[in-house]
Amino acid sequence: MVDIIAIDGPASAGKSSIAKKISNYFNIPLLNSGRLYRAVAYKIINKKININDKYEILTIAKSLKNDDLKSIKLFSSEIDKVSSQISAKKYLRDQLKEYQIEFPKKYGKGKKFAIVEGRDIGTEIFPLAKFKFFMWANAGTRAHRRYNQIIKSGKKASLARIYDEIVSRDREDINRKIAPLKPAVNSVLLDTTYLDIEQAFNVIKKTLSN
């Protein structure tokens, strides 16, 4: 049976970069669970669906394909906001939980590990995961990372606005009643404020090798 590597943490803590690096190193499947919510948010915005239309939102969630998660259009402030709002809806979390649980079974055959990265993987989706990591960094550091990422892509950005959005998103994620953002009790904590990707990767790689 494939072992699950659960990686959790807030926005711009380095989860996606680390998860991708581990996936490439071990040649194992990776699911960025945040993209599930972003893909749903993108379609809600695109189809002008009411944020409280349970039937339409569930219809979108049930029809998600792997290709929907690969779109470069999933990253914008508007999608950040909508995905944060819908992630608090229990009916949607329950539906997308099915997708996440099936992912290792579907794509992990013959592999040693499968990685699932998000905000509640070690606490809600895979509480029995063999390997759990929780990544963190202060809001200022994360805002600079997101700002540089946007500028590098050729778009304009406001560092102050990004900082405010990150602080607001943290507050919502930590305080929501359903699946709040928090480290699993038995997770390895990684503060990436002063750790670069390579250093964090070496810590995780060493843990997986033990």
The gist of it:
The protein is α/β, with parallel strands linked by helices and 210 residues long.
Keywords, please?
alpha/beta, 210 residues, five-stranded parallel sheet
Residue windows where pLDDT falls under 50 for at least 5 positions? none
Number of strands: 5
First-to-last CA distance: 18 Å
- Helix-strand topology string: EHEHHHHEHEHHEH
Q: What is the makeup of the main sheet?
A: 5 strands, parallel
User: What structural category characterises the helix and strand content?
Assistant: alpha/beta
What is the C-alpha radius of gyration, as a whole number of Å?
Answer: 17 Å
What's the overall geometry? globular
Question: Quick check: average pLDDT?
Answer: 91
Strand content: 5-15%
Number of helical segments? 9
In percent, how helical is the residue content?
Answer: 40-55%
* Largest sheet strand order: 2-3-1-4-5
Structure explained in plain terms:
The protein has about 210 residues and is an alpha/beta fold. It contains nine helices and five strands, in the order E-H-E-H-H-H-H-E-H-E-H-H-E-H. The protein has helices at about 15-25, 35-45, 55-60, 75-85, 90-105, 120-125, 140-150, 160-175, 195-210, and strands spanning about 5-10, 30, 115-120, 130-135, 190. The protein has a five-stranded parallel beta sheet with strand order 2-3-1-4-5, sandwiched between helices. Helix 1 crosses helix 9, helix 2 (about 35-45) crosses helix 4 and helix 7 (about 140-150) packs across helix 8. The chain is globular. The model has no long low-confidence stretch (mean pLDDT about 90).
